[in-house]
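Hi P.,

Sorry for the delay on this. The queue was packed all week, but I finally got your sequence through. Input first:
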Amino acid sequence: MTTTSPDFDAVVIGAGFSGLHMLKLLRDKLGLRVRAYEEGNTVGGTWYWNRYPGARCDSDSYIYCFTWDKQLLQEWEWSERYPEQPEILRYLEHVADRHDLKRDIQFNTRVTGAEFDEEDNLWRVHLSGGETVTARHLITAVGTLSATNLPPFKGVERFKGRWYHTSRFPQTGVDFTAKRVAVIGTGATAVQAIPEIAQQAKHVTVFQRTANYCVPARNGKVDPELVKARKADYDGIVKRIRESFFGQEHYFIPKSVLETTPEEREREFDRMWDAGGFAFWLANYQDMFFSQEANDLIADYLKRKIRNTVKDPVVAEKLIPKGHPYGTKRQPLDTNYYETFNKDNVLLVDAATDGGIEEITEKGIRAGGKDYEFDIIVFATGFDAMTGPLKALNLKGRGGRTLDEVWADGPHTYLGLSIAGFPNLFTITGPQSPSVLTNMPVAIEQHVEWISDCIDHLRNSGSTRIEATPDAQEQWVAHVNEIVSMTLMPKANSWYMSANIAGKPRAFLPYLGPEGVGGYRKKCDEIAAKGYEGFTLA
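Then the structure:
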């Protein structure tokens, strides 16, 4: 093994929350030569690409931000509880400018492939412009939901109108005025977009494959006194969210819902419903994710809310989820989602009762033997989550093995950070880490800090190579699967379970550890303290 000097100490792929923080730490704290590559024309990642109507974060803004810039925590003023996409993008632009990060980011550049050179002990990274650069370390900051999923609907190319995927809306926006619009999908993105589109369009037809349980966002201005109190307590807030289960200030009710009286639990449900946000999902009774009987009681409350909100009982029944426990799919936060189906210009076509989509036609969509005509089709069909963005990089590890080969039956990682056979590769919020089950900036900061400390350790110890051992990796995979098997999560055909992509091996993608992201942080710190247990250093 030789140690040829590479072009960079590290290459970072992506310039969203993850890439910006990774670049900042490696360059400014460790003094390394770093280059980030970003496919978009500016920073932002998720918040650059997702510009659909109603796009906004669903973690409270006071914790949906970087916590490492303490002065910025005090200076930045968010306009709402859940800021919209343009505001979050402005925030990330501000961070990039404030810390002079753009000078080390190459925009409009896609990484088309990379392979580990075992002889020279470095990564050769291929770029869309035809250039190849080398780096000692390769760090993916590509996000968990960035590989667009457009199901292979027959006839898309024949459609004479315009069509868009929610993750690739034009920067100039789309004018829906006086248009007949189809929205395909009813996940978290569609729940945000449908009410906004329905306010503009002449008519909206929603094509639903699987109904979702929605809870209200309760968005709006935040009381200035609450903002002031939070800014005064940021040290406490940061400590609490870093030690918490979900990276939020939400905590389960420490008793079984089955032990409560109907009156008591109704009071608690009302309290969480009125509070809005993720409280109903992440601060409910502790047995919600483990007991079907407990889950049924909680789900019944939401079903009653749907029936009370949607005026047409036939439509209400279509909107009531069937076949999966509450909370086992990504929780959408809604603002007037159910109310939108009371509008005269909104139609719901449900695959189970009305028939699924058969094909896209020149004039629109054929579903259940019926033809619907549209001017615009919006595909809110989600993503090839977590593994998709990594596979798209065309990475080759030792012996030229690809991720497709080593993940043929689903992801195999160590801690969601590293992959056996891929030395000096780090995956920020990779599969089998808490990632999407948390407030993402908390998970991102934990990974970025751990990776930075690890690279610093390698440098100080004279090591130039680190790789997860196959044994440690398989133990971690078994642990991830064992934990989730004790919950209701596998009962849902969710993207958490890889079930939204035809042919994708069924596997639980994130990590639902015993203590969530807080416990996972402790585990990662313990591994580092033991000289990076489960890794081989050379």
